[in-house]
Design goal:
Layout (H helix, E strand, L loop, with lengths): L20 E7 L2 E2 L3 E3 L11 H5 L2 E3 L2 E5 L5 E4 L1 H14 L7 H14 L12 E10 L12 E10 L10 E5 L16 H5 L2 H9 L4 E3 L16 E5 L5 E4 L8 H12 L5 E4 L11 E6 L3 E10 L2 E4 L9 H14 L10 E3 L1
Parallel strand pairs: 9-10, 9-15, 12-13
Antiparallel strand pairs: 1-2, 1-3, 1-8, 4-7, 5-6, 5-7, 6-17, 7-8, 11-12, 11-14, 14-15, 15-16
Helix pairs in contact: 2-3
This protein binds pyridoxal-5'-phosphate (PLP) and 2-OXO-4-methylpentanoic acid (COI).
2-OXO-4-methylpentanoic acid binds next to loops.
């Protein structure tokens, strides 16, 4: 397969139009059979439910070229399941999980020339999404929906790659206790746009959101979960009903225990104890594992001992093991790697 002539190593996290995308329409109570199309534009009515009431959700996963030249995806079944749960919460017809995985395979195969080469540092990011498309003016769910997947080659989510980030504690809340923080609804990201613009203006890479009810517990950032490492080398990740159940985080907890022999616990993390951790990182499909060097809470700095130059040693081991599995350098747990 001849690859496209791109500066793969120079890619940031942006949209590049690729050759094919998948589309399936839901009408009269059923999904059609779905097709691949060249057309990247969507035409819809001015009163489409997605435009008026933000009835939309999405997923994110990646395709990789392995060391031995195979094209693979990482745990697409978990994205299919999460989108299913998200759709139910938003009163949308869920896209069948087996068809989701089949559509992912079709899109990767049709855009194989866009899957970045092994060792380039880039990957093919897949963006499945689902939205209400027919006109709705009273507040209610749509009757007609579109499910799509496009692909775009991407580099690191945060500029500077593996350099530790500086975050700030946000004055805004990301999700209410009984709200939509645990699903991948577009509306969660819409509300984070103002806080992220403010954070960037102030020189921070991301926001640390605290729990909305008490503002004493760590939740997540706008686009990734947290992992911490204690001074006695335990991996800790916040447990909360209002954060997204990150597939990367769930995978890392397994990797920590089963590949690295570390203790790993998912539990409530109070903001008070953050200053006592040895390492901190953000994890997600886009973020992979991005190290955090400093968190600023209204002028008070929390500086992690791992510093501002390099990933902490345990974060690095987690990173190397996870990416080793994704890139085919290490044997994966059963079912984690799906060959295209
Ligand atoms: N949290 C939020 C708010 C996200 O947008 C994402 C990205 O998908 C994550 C966490 C990480 O989830 P995953 O590892 O499944 O990509
Ligand atoms: C992902 O990691 O796939 C996400 O959806 C996060 C987003 C901030 C790009």
């Amino acid at each position: 397969m001849e690859k496209k002539d791109l500066d793969w190593s120079g890619l940031g996290f942006g949209y590049v139009k690729t050759d094919k995308r998948y589309v399936s329409n839901f009408k009269n109570g059923a999904w059609d059979e779905g097709v691949l199309t060249d057309d990247a534009d969507i035409v819809m009515n001015e009163c489409a439910c997605v435009l008026q009431y933000a009835q939309t959700c999405f997923e994110g996963l990646k395709a990789y070229t392995t060391e031995d030249g195979r094209t693979v995806c990482f745990r697409p079944d978990l994205n299919a399941a999460r989108m299913y749960d998200t759709a139910l919460r938003l009163e949308m017809p869920p896209f069948p999980k087996d068809r989701f995985i089949d559509a992912v395979k079709q899109v990767v195969k049709a855009n194989e020339a866009w899957v970045p080469p092994y060792g380039s540092g880039a990957t093919l990011y897949l963006r499945p999404y689902l939205f209400g498309i027919n006109p709705v003016i009273g507040v209610k769910p749509a009757d007609e929906y579109q499910f799509r997947i496009f692909a775009t080659p991407v580099g690191p989510y945060f500029k500077g790659g593996a350099k530790p980030l500086t975050l700030c504690v946000s004055d805004f809340d990301r999700a209410a206790p009984h709200g939509t923080g645990h699903i991948k609804a577009g509306l969660n990201y819409a509300m984070s746009l103002h806080p992220i613009v403010e954070a960037h203006k102030a020189g921070f890479a991301e926001n640390m959101y605290l729990d909305a009810a008490t503002r004493t517990k760590v939740e997540e950032t706008g686009g990734a979960n947290f992992i911490f490492v204690t001074k006695d080398n335990k991996v800790v990740t916040p447990k909360s009903n209002s954060i997204l159940p990150s597939i990367t985080r769930r995978s890392l907890m397994y990797v920590a225990k089963e590949y690295l022999g570390l203790e790993a616990e998912e539990r409530e993390v109070s903001f008070e104890e953050v200053k006592d951790f040895a390492e901190c990182g953000l994890c997600g499909t886009a973020a992979v594992i991005s190290p955090v060097g400093k968190i600023v809470d209204h002028g008070t700095e929390i500086c992690f001992p791992s510093g501002m130059e390099e990933m902490g040693p345990t974060t690095k081991k987690l990173y190397d093991t996870l990416t080793g599995i994704q890139m085919g350098r290490l044997d994966p747990p059963e079912g984690w790697i799906v060959e295209i």
